[in-house]
Write a structure and sequence with these properties.
There is one protein chain. The strands form 9 sheets. The protein has a 4-stranded antiparallel sheet with strand order 12-20-17-18. About 40% of the residues lie in helices and about 20% in strands. The termini are close together. It has 3 domains: about 140 residues, Adenine-n6-DNA-methyltransferase TaqI, Chain A, domain 2 (Alpha-Beta Complex), CATH 3.90.220; about 80 residues, Bipartite methylase S protein (Helix Hairpins), CATH 1.10.287.1120; about 140 residues, Adenine-n6-DNA-methyltransferase TaqI, Chain A, domain 2 (Alpha-Beta Complex), CATH 3.90.220.20. With about 375 residues, the protein is an alpha+beta fold. Helix 3 crosses helix 6 and helix 6 runs antiparallel to helix 13. It is elongated and about 70 Å long. It is built from 13 helices and 23 strands.
Length: about 375
């Protein structure tokens, strides 16, 4: 933990906001002046140079807009709170920001990294009944540890380098997924409908919806971790936030998971699929997920998972998903989804390819985890 003195942002930055010119006045829009909104910022945005919408000098005059210079740290103050970027050039903004023009005492890269790691804290400062917002006064009163300016530059540089490596690893994972996607298209796309027999899912696999969580009946005596909808990603699992509920001896048989089982999301992003490879011992699954167990004489899980992916990408689940309050895919409709079945030899060749690529992907993911741990440790060291 550092021992740097904390200072108010209002003492080292000028906090500015903006407004939205009238949208029904054509003379205000499609000019050449950059005008940014929070919707244009995402987790990968660090420096923004060009905005999606541009305004005219007439809009500036009519709305009394003030520009902020290149290097200003952009902070979204509502809907949502906590998006961060740095202006790469002079620009204007709407009212969804409380931006920070840095004085000579604060390095903008250091401030960017500090705020980037404080999203939860920033949201806790939000006020308002209809929607949360942080005011100019609240932003000015935020306390930040302030080392000497050269140390700020060094810290920003270190965090930037690690962040760049993290981005590279994520890009490598995306590229490996694209390699599998390309191989699937090469091996199956265009031939699926023409050559191979169509089978319903319940003709080639068994399905089981997970256990319903009844919070009132939880004893904690036979509590085990379970997969929920949000734990299942495309082709992988987020096991950092596993919850637990009771699974008695019969439940543990009925809701068991075996190597090669497919977990398919019943709701949320309908159809999202991953293959269980025994990532966690004594782990089960709840009602928001379907377990699909392939008949090994007819299909392999890698093939089914990627067919599910392409069906989702092509919007095919829109036709089968039942909509109540949210879209969901009940067992009765999952079972009748049809799959075109290539020869098992071809499916196995694709599965072998996927498994080889997944080995490379696993190595990259392990490197990514180490970098993220290093980044988080440094953020804690520098900013507490």
């Amino acid at each position: 933990m550092n021992s740097w003195k904390k200072v108010r942002l209002g003492d080292i930055c000028t906090v500015v906001s903006g407004t939205t010119p009238k949208s029904n006045v054509p003379e205000f829009w499609n000019g050449d002046l950059n005008w940014v909104t929070p919707a244009e910022l995402n987790d990968e945005t660090k420096v923004i140079y060009i905005t999606q919408r541009k305004i005219t000098p007439a809009a500036v005059r009519a709305s009394s807009l003030k520009p902020f210079p290149a290097g200003t740290v952009l902070l979204s103050s509502r809907a949502p709170i906590g998006k961060i970027a740095i202006a790469g050039t002079e620009m204007y903004c709407n009212q969804g920001f409380k931006n920070l023009i840095c004085s000579e005492r604060i390095h903008n890269g250091f401030l960017y990294r500090y705020l980037k790691g404080k999203t939860e804290y920033l949201n806790s400062l939000g006020r308002g009944a209809t929607f949360k917002e942080i005011s100019k006064t609240i932003v000015e009163d935020i306390q930040i540890p302030l080392p000497p300016i050269n140390e700020q530059r060094r810290i920003a540089s270190v965090l930037d380098k690690i962040s760049h490596l993290i981005a590279q690893r994520k890009q490598q994972i995306e590229q490996l997924d694209l390699i599998i996607k390309s191989r699937f298209i090469e091996m199956f796309e265009g031939r699926i409908k023409k050559k191979w027999e169509n089978k319903r899912l319940d003709e080639i696999a068994t399905t089981r919806l997970g256990k319903m969580l009844d919070a009132k009946k939880q004893t904690g005596i036979c509590s085990y971790p379970y997969l929920a909808n949000f734990n299942v990603r495309w082709f992988g699992f987020d096991l950092e936030r596993l919850k637990e509920m009771d699974f008695n001896e019969d439940d543990r048989i009925e809701f068991s998971l075996m190597n090669g089982d497919l977990l398919i999301c019943e709701g949320g992003e309908v159809g999202r699929t991953a293959i269980w490879r025994g990532e966690r011992a004594n782990c089960f699954f709840q009602k928001a997920l379907h377990r699909v167990r392939c008949n090994p004489e007819m299909c392999v899980p890698e093939y089914i998972a990627w067919v599910m992916y392409f069906k989702a990408q092509n919007g095919q689940f829109n036709e089968v998903a039942t909509t109540a309050t949210i879209a969901h895919l009940p067992s009765v409709k999952l079972k009748v989804i049809k799959f075109s079945l290539p020869p098992l030899e071809l499916q196995n060749a694709f599965a072998d390819f996927v498994q080889q690529v997944d080995k490379s992907k696993f190595e990259v993911q392990q490197g990514l985890k180490k970098l993220e741990l290093q980044y988080n440790a440094l953020m804690q060291e520098y900013f507490g």
